[in-house]
C-alpha cells in the first residue's frame, strides 16, 4: 500500500511531494523494524541493515517505474536539450525523496532513546568511523555510540593535503558510482539500496553532529549537504543511466536506432555524473571546512 502512494508522472509534476514520501518511508521503516525485531536476540544485531532494506522495499516500485518512464522519453524525444530537461524533473523527484530519507533518519537518530539509536544505526556509525576516525576505529565507534564523542569542526587543509584528501574521496565515490551503475543496470531499481544506505550514513553523521544540541540540526544538514547534495545527485544520474540502458535491452531494442539513442543519452548522463562527483569532492575538501 505505502509503495503505491505516488506515481512517477505525478512526482515529476510536483517533485516536492517526494520529500514527504521519503520521510514517511524512512520513518515507517525505522519504527516497524524496531517494533518487529528490537527484542529479537538474532535480528537485533542487524537492525541497522534491516531498516535500510525496509526503506528500499518501499521505494523500489517508484524507482522502477521512474526508470521505465525515462527510457520511454529517450525513445520519443529527439532534442537532447529537452531530454536533459525531462531527466532533470526525474532527478528533482529523486533528490526530494532522498532528502526525505535524510531528515527522517536524522530526526529519529536524535529523538529516539540513546540505547535504541545505538542499535538502529550501529552499522552506519561504524561506516562513518571507518572514513572519518581521527583516532582508533574502536574508540570512534564506542565514543559515538555512547555519545561521549561528538563531531568537531573541520580544518581547512593546505593544497597538498587537500588534493590527497580529494583523491581519497574520489576513489571511494567512484567505487560507489560504479556500483550504482551496475546495480541499476543489472537489477533495474537495485541502485536504490546504495542510495538509501548512503542516506542513512549521512543521517548518522548529522545526528552525531547535532545529538547533544538539537539547535545544531540545521547546521548539521548544511554541513553535510553542501557537498552531499551534488554527490547524491551524481549517483542518481548514473543510476538513471544504468536503469534506462537495462530497460532498453529488456525491450529488445538492442542494436537498432532506438537503442543507440538511449545509449547516447545514458552516456551523457554518466559523463555529467562524473563531473558533478568531482566538483562535489572539491567542495567537501576546500569549501565545507571554511563554512563549518
Key terms:
single chain; 292 residues; 11 helices; mainly alpha
Radius of gyration: 19 Å
What are the secondary-structure elements, in order, as H or E?
A: HHHHHHHHHHH
Helices, by number, come to 11
Q: How many individual β-strands?
A: 0
Distance between the termini: 41 Å
- Structural category is mainly alpha
Number of domains: 1
Helix content: over 70%
**Low-confidence spans:** none
Query: In this structure, how is the largest beta sheet organized?
Result: none
Oligomeric assembly: single chain
Mean pLDDT score, rounded? 81
What form results from the Cα inertia axes?
A: globular
Classify the beta-strand content into a percent band: under 5%
What does this structure look like?
With 292 residues, the chain is an all-alpha fold. It has one domain. The chain has eleven helices and no strands. Helix 4 packs across helix 9, helix 6 crosses helix 7 and helix 9 packs antiparallel against helix 10. The longest helix is centred in the last third of the chain and has 35 residues. It is globular and about 60 Å long.
Amino acid at each position: 500500500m505505502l509503495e503505491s502512494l505516488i506515481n512517477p508522472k505525478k512526482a515529476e509534476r510536483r517533485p516536492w511531494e517526494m520529500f514527504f514520501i521519503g520521510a514517511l518511508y524512512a520513518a515507517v521503516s525505522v519504527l516497524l523494524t524496531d517494533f518487529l525485531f528490537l527484542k529479537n536476540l538474532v535480528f537485533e544485531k542487524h537492525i541497522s541493515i534491516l531498516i535500510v532494506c525496509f526503506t528500499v522495499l518501499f521505494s523500489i516500485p517508484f524507482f522502477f517505474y521512474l526508470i521505465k518512464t525515462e527510457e520511454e522519453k529517450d525513445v520519443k524525444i529527439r532534442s537532447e536539450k529537452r531530454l536533459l530537461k525531462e531527466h532533470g524533473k526525474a532527478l528533482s523527484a529523486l533528490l526530494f525523496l532522498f532528502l526525505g530519507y535524510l531528515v527522517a533518519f536524522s530526526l529519529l537518530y536524535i529523538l529516539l532513546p540513546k540505547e535504541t539509536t545505538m542499535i538502529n544505526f550501529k552499522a552506519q556509525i561504524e561506516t562513518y568511523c571507518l572514513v572519518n576516525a581521527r583516532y582508533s576505529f574502536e574508540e570512534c565507534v564506542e565514543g559515538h555510540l555512547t555519545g561521549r564523542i561528538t563531531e568537531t569542526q573541520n580544518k581547512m587543509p593546505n593544497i597538498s593535503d587537500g588534493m590527497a584528501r580529494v583523491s581519497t574521496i574520489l576513489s571511494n565515490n567512484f567505487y560507489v558510482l560504479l556500483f550504482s551503475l551496475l546495480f541499476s543496470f543489472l537489477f533495474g531499481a537495485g541502485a536504490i539500496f546504495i542510495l538509501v544506505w548512503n542516506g542513512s550514513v549521512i543521517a548518522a553523521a548529522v545526528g552525531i553532529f547535532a545529538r547533544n544540541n538539537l539547535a545544531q540540526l540545521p547546521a548539521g544538514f548544511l554541513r553535510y549537504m553542501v557537498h552531499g547534495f551534488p554527490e547524491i545527485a551524481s549517483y542518481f544520474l548514473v543510476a538513471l543511466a544504468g536503469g534506462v540502458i537495462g530497460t532498453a535491452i529488456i525491450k529488445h531494442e538492442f542494436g537498432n536506432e532506438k537503442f543507440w539513442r538511449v545509449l547516447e543519452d545514458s552516456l551523457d548522463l554518466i559523463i555529467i555524473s562524473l563531473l558533478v562527483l568531482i566538483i562535489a569532492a572539491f567542495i567537501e575538501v576546500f569549501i565545507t571546512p571554511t563554512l563549518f
